[in-house]
Structure formats: C-alpha cells, structure tokens
Specification:
With 269 residues, this protein is mainly α. It is built from 9 helices and no strands. The chain is elongated and about 65 Å long.
Length: 269
C-alpha cells in the first residue's frame, strides 16, 4: 500500500466532515442501526426505575444512593461500549480501500468518536433527565451539581466509547470482540469501587472510567458527610479532576486507535 502522504489541515478537515455526514446518514437511514440506539436509554431507565429507591438521597440511605449512582454511571458506560465495539472492525475492508485512495486515518477515527459522542450525549441526557422524573437527588449545591453529574455521565460514555473503538481497531472481525467487551463490562462493574470493595488490584480502578464518573456523583451529593464513620476517598476527589481524568482516558484511546490503524496500513503492500 502507498505510504501516507502529507495532507493539509484543510484536506483532513474535509475528510472529517464528509465521513461524519456519511456516518450520521448511515445511522438515520438504517432502522437496524437506529432502533437499538433509540431504545437503549429508555430500557436502561426502566431498569433503574425498577431497582431504585426514589427517596434514597433525601433519606440519606447510603446503600440505596450508591445503587442509583452505580446504575446511572455503569449504564452510561454500557451504552458506550455497545455503540462502538464493532464500528471499525466491521468496516476494515472498506477502510483499507479508502485509505489506499487517500483517506486520512485520523479523520476517520475522529469522525467515529464525534458521531458516537453525540449519540452518547443524547442517550445520557435521556437517562439522566428521565431519572430526575422519579429520583430526588437532593444536591447540596444543585446549581453546580446537575451539570457536573450530567457531564460525568457523558464523559463516562465517551471514554468507554473510545475504549470500544480502540478494541475495534485492534481486532480483525467483530465476532472476536465478545471476550474483550465482556472484560470491559466486568471491569466497569467490579473496579468502579462503588458496590464492590476492591481488593489487592485496586490500582485498576484508576484506569476505569466508571470509577471517575461515580466519584463526581459521590462528591456532588456529599455522600461522605451523611453518616459518621462513612468515607470513601473517591467521593472527596474534586469533580473537575475526575472529569479531566475521563477526558484524558478518551483522548489516549483515540490516539492509540489512530496509531494502530496508521501502522497497520503503512505495513501493507
């Protein structure tokens, strides 16, 4: 395959715009792709309604409040991985031809993360906004807490979406993604350090998006001050630091996915 040519920023931007528009068009003209994206958030919201105690925050019930926070953040993460894990590997043959024809790989990956981030933001808005209909979060500082928690859900979704794209870039076939996706889901659940106490491998939680998303919620509701003797370090982390960690995680996954694809196509004849 031809070596990558140096392209102007204008050409790369043009590729990004064309790919983004094409991807949105593919989604909105394909009911098989659109319907699952539409149904994910309402289904997860229904599950939340069935399992949550609606007055947990007002009653300062730590166990039930943690369940609600856990479900909201982990569901945002689930939607991210479900949306993204097949996106690159299913198009690998088409991508190879387009790269040979001059497509910019970075524009391709950026178009994927941009479209999936927009979809994830809408899904997170539906999930968080819908939860407000039956859950009273009783935030001590609602003016800052609502946008921070909403951002935590969006960035958790985007971080796991970026991780899904990285997995998709590493694999040749979407059928091979079952085990990595299952592992990612398990890590989001176990190492979120919310409902399950993390043991000796607790360092993994620092590279787990759900951990950082939950820490924003825990800080926003002031859960560490509810009961004497209850305190978790994650709930004392400044929300902006946690949001920054999520952004950094997403950025690194996108960079690694781009590097993987660039190296792969450079090595082809």
């Amino acid at each position: 395959m031809k070596k990558f040519k140096r392209r102007s920023a204008r050409a790369n931007l043009h590729h990004f715009r064309v790919l983004t528009a094409r991807y949105f068009r593919q989604i909105f003209t394909n009911l098989g792709m659109l319907l699952p994206l539409i149904l994910e958030a309402p289904v997860m919201l229904l599950i939340l309604r069935l399992v949550c105690q609606t007055d947990a925050f007002a009653a300062k019930n730590i166990a039930q409040a943690n369940v609600i926070i856990f479900v909201l953040i982990v569901m945002a993460a689930f939607m991210g991985i479900l949306n993204s894990y097949r996106e690159i590997c299913k198009e690998r043959d088409v991508l190879a031809r387009e790269v040979f024809g001059g497509l910019d790989v970075s524009a391709y990956v950026l178009s994927k993360i941009a479209v999936l981030s927009a979809i994830g933001a809408v899904q997170s808005a539906l999930l968080f906004g819908g939860s407000l209909l039956f859950i009273d979060f009783s935030f001590p500082h609602p003016l800052s807490a609502y946008p921070l928690c909403f951002l935590a859900m969006i960035l958790t979704n985007i971080s796991v979406t970026a991780l899904g794209l990285l997995v998709s870039a590493l694999l040749k076939k979407s059928e091979s993604a079952i085990l990595p996706v299952l592992l990612i889901i398990i890590v989001q659940v176990v190492f979120s350090d919310c409902l399950i106490e993390v043991g000796g491998a607790d360092f993994i939680k620092y590279i787990t998006p759900s951990y950082w998303g939950i820490s924003v919620f825990g800080n926003a509701v002031g859960i560490n001050g509810w009961v004497a003797g209850y305190s978790k370090t994650m709930n004392d982390i400044h929300p902006l630091f946690s949001l920054g960690a999520l952004l950094l995680f997403a950025f690194l996954c996108v960079v690694l996915a781009t590097m993987k694809l660039r190296r792969e196509f450079r090595q082809k004849d």
